[in-house]
């Protein structure tokens, strides 16, 4: 199963990618994941990868999230 990946960008916003293609962006993790699901409606679960690119040295965190529609 292909997963949508949500990555934290250096400017503090988030982007959702699928197969290397940006499919959604947002100010927070949930918004980016939800916008990504809008472009992949048959993805039941979005795999989230939060990586701090701005020089932080720690292992990547992987977890499954169930995005909720932003209000």
Care to describe what's here?
This protein is α+β, with helices and mostly antiparallel strands and 71 residues long. It has one domain (5-65). It contains one helix and five strands. The chain has one helix spanning 29-39; strands spanning 5-8, 14-18, 21-26, 46-50, 61-65. The chain has a five-stranded mixed β-sheet. The chain is flat, with a radius of gyration of 11 Å.
Describe, in short, the structure shown:
About 28% of the residues have low confidence.
Kindly, what is the distance between the CA atoms of the first and last residues, rounded to a whole number of angstroms?
Answer: 29 Å
> pLDDT average, as an integer?
66
Count of individual helical segments: 1
The share of residues in extended strands comes to 35-45%
Keywords:
5 strands, alpha+beta, five-stranded mixed sheet
Task: Note the topology.
Elements: E1 5-8, E2 14-18, E3 21-26, H1 29-39, E4 46-50, E5 61-65
Parallel strand pairs: 1-4
Antiparallel strand pairs: 1-2, 2-3, 4-5
């Amino acid at each position: 199963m292909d997963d949508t990946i949500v990555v934290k960008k250096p400017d503090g916003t988030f982007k959702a990618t699928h197969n290397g293609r940006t499919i959604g962006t947002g100010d927070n993790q949930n918004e980016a994941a939800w916008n990504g699901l809008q472009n992949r409606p048959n993805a039941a679960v979005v795999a989230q990868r939060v990586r701090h690119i701005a020089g932080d040295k720690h292992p990547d965190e992987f977890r499954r999230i169930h995005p909720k529609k932003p209000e």
